[in-house]
């Protein structure tokens, strides 16, 4: 089969995404509007019969003072990654991106390599035999994922460094997911650990109320988010970013982005954003106050989002990034500890890959990023 690649309209791109059970929220056409500071383009792969069989959202970031670009396909493109002739997908893409002035290409194949059940992770933490998730025998792995990695290396793609904790890539290599398909809500809740179930009950007894908010409530979310940023030592995004995100995503699909706020006695204590594409739901951003933590608003809001995801017919609830550390003294350990309580699975993706179209400029960008 020989494939043809060309730019496609947003309408064509969206129709293709909607024809699939799942794709990353960063590969929908509206994500280009969220990342307004990047130039963007939708690419489509067509089979000999003229049918659209793959799509990718490309974001172009210009180098200062030079008309050369980093081309980035976050968690994409959406193609047949297990095709033995992977080059027929990637070669025309590289040729096109080069013609557009790209000096380097970065992509994140949406391919899961390994999965670990919550029970396996808990055992590994208790035994203290492994310091990293990657050193623990997985409960499931995808043999074809290793073949994909080999094909990419042979074709000249370079694997991004994972920084030793799974956070070296732009997008997280390790995530935590709760499978919903084929389970009842009772089964899902029974999968939670005792502490999570107790915290959900405590929130209910304390009178915590979780409500679904709208555009005007983003300011409430943002106030809590700024408090969280100060507490956790990160630079918060401005309110305008979330407002742009809301407008862009909900214009494409009214259900694409949701906002949840947990109130106690009329006071907002926790807030989250949720993203939906097909059967895949993501917990996107979370925020919480510094006080009244004893009424467990964060557990309440997560349980509400899981229930609503289930009602939407989602097959997977994705709590996004974790570090792969199992060391209780590591400052990133709390991430995996909180999410393991949901009884889901840790998943390792193939990570991000780079193709230097201009090795000198690619090396200069690497140097610049490492200094940052």
UniProtKB/TrEMBL annotation:
Origin superkingdom: Bacteria
Record key words, sorted: Acyltransferase, Cell shape, Cell wall biogenesis/degradation, Peptidoglycan synthesis, Transferase
Record-linked PROSITE patterns: FEMABX (PS51191)
Cited InterPro entries: Acyl_CoA_acyltransferase, FEMABX, PG_Glycine_Bridge_Synth
Family of the protein in this entry: Belongs to the FemABX family.
Listed name of the protein: Peptidoglycan bridge formation glycyltransferase FemX
Organism: Kitasatospora terrestris
Gene symbol of the encoding locus: femX
């Amino acid at each position: 089969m020989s494939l043809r690649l060309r730019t496609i309209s947003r309408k064509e791109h969206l129709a293709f995404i909607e024809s699939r059970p799942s794709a990353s929220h960063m590969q929908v056409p509206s994500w280009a509007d969220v990342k307004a500071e990047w130039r963007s383009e939708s690419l489509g792969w067509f089979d000999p019969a003229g049918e659209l069989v793959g799509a990718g959202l490309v974001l172009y970031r210009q180098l200062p003072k030079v008309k050369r670009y980093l081309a980035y396909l976050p968690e994409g493109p959406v193609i047949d990654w297990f095709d033995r002739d992977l080059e027929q997908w990637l070669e025309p893409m590289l040729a096109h991106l080069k013609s557009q002035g790209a000096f380097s290409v970065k992509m994140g194949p949406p391919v899961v390599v390994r999965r670990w059940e919550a029970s396996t992770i808990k055992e590994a933490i208790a035994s203290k035999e492994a310091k990293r998730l990657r050193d623990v025998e997985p409960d499931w792995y995808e043999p074809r994922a290793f073949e994909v990695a080999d094909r990419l290396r042979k074709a000249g793609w370079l694997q991004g460094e994972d920084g030793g904790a799974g956070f070296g890539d732009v997008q997280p290599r390790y995530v935590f997911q709760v499978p919903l398909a084929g389970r009842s809500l009772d089964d899902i809740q029974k999968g939670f650990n005792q502490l999570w179930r107790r915290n959900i009950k405590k929130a209910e007894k304390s009178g915590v109320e979780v409500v679904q908010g709208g555009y005007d409530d983003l300011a409430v979310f943002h106030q809590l988010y700024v408090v969280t940023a100060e507490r956790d030592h990160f630079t918060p995004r401005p309110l305008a970013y979330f407002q742009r995100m809301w407008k862009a995503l909900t214009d494409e699909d009214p259900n694409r982005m949701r906002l949840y706020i947990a109130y106690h006695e009329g006071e907002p204590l926790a807030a989250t954003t949720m993203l939906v594409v097909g059967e895949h739901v993501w917990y996107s951003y979370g925020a919480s106050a510094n006080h009244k933590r004893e009424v467990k608003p964060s557990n309440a809001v997560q349980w509400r989002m899981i229930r609503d995801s289930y009602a939407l017919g989602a097959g997977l609830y994705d709590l996004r990034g974790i570090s792969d550390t199992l060391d209780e003294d590591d400052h990133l350990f709390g991430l995996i500890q909180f999410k393991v309580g949901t009884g889901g699975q840790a998943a390792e993706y193939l990570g991000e890959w780079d193709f230097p179209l201009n090795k000198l400029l690619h090396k200069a960008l690497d140097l610049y990023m490492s200094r940052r």
